[in-house]
Amino acid sequence: MMKKVLGITLVTTLFTMLCLFLGFALAAGTETTESEVPSVEDNYESAVELIKTKDYEGGLEMLLAIVEEDAENADIHSLIGFSSRKSGDLEQAYKYYASALELEPLHVGANEYLGELYVQVGDMDKANEQLEILAGICETSQAKENPPKVRHSGYSYGKTDNKEWGILGCVEHDTLTEIIAEAEAEIKAAAEKTE
């Protein structure tokens, strides 16, 4: 009888040890490593992909989460402003464009988007001021000696561009010029209709 009890105890103990070993082995296999955790840059790129498909709210949600991890990145602030504006939250858009430009005054994307915001709210004077700021940035960036590092529309996380281009090659300047011209033409046409 004693042998039977010892045998059952031994089998139970071995079974328990086997279960514990398998449990630890399975737990170790599901452990998340640092390489599996998406980086801020990976999350930023995912947000950009959502924004490119016009899922501004989805992109905005991701950007608001990652700005907490990288609060000093003007690209993130600019794209939060862009997504906010496209989602209809103009107050938040202005706040984030302003913070992007506080971090990087030469951020051409944030300068262009802020100009687009001014067009959207009908403040053509401010929109034209942003256009002049962009013209200055674009002209300065083609300087042969010590051109400033400028950022474009915010789709390339943390990358600067030192290309030699002038106003005609500054896409953001050209885009804002077209948007302002279209808005001014609409304003003029509306004024003519009321006369």
Description:
This protein is mainly alpha-helical and 195 residues long. The protein contains eight helices and no strands. It has helices at 2-29, 40-52, 56-66, 74-87, 90-103, 108-120, 124-141, 171-194.
Task: Give a nutshell description of this structure.
By secondary structure, the chain is mainly alpha-helical. It is built from eight helices and no strands. The longest helix is centred in the N-terminal third of the chain and has 28 residues, at 2-29.
Give the overall average pLDDT: 79
Number of helices: 8
Gyration radius from CA atoms, angstroms:
28 Å
Low-pLDDT stretches are: 17-22, 151-168
* Overall SS class: mainly alpha
Strand elements, count:
0
Shape: globular
**Overall helicity:** 55-70%
Strand content: under 5%
Summarize the main sheet: none
Output the helix-strand order. Answer: HHHHHHHH
Report the span from N to C terminus. 112 Å
List the helices and strands and how they pair.
Layout: H1 2-29, H2 40-52, H3 56-66, H4 74-87, H5 90-103, H6 108-120, H7 124-141, H8 171-194
Helix pairs in contact: 2-3, 3-4, 4-5, 4-6, 5-6, 6-7, 6-8, 7-8
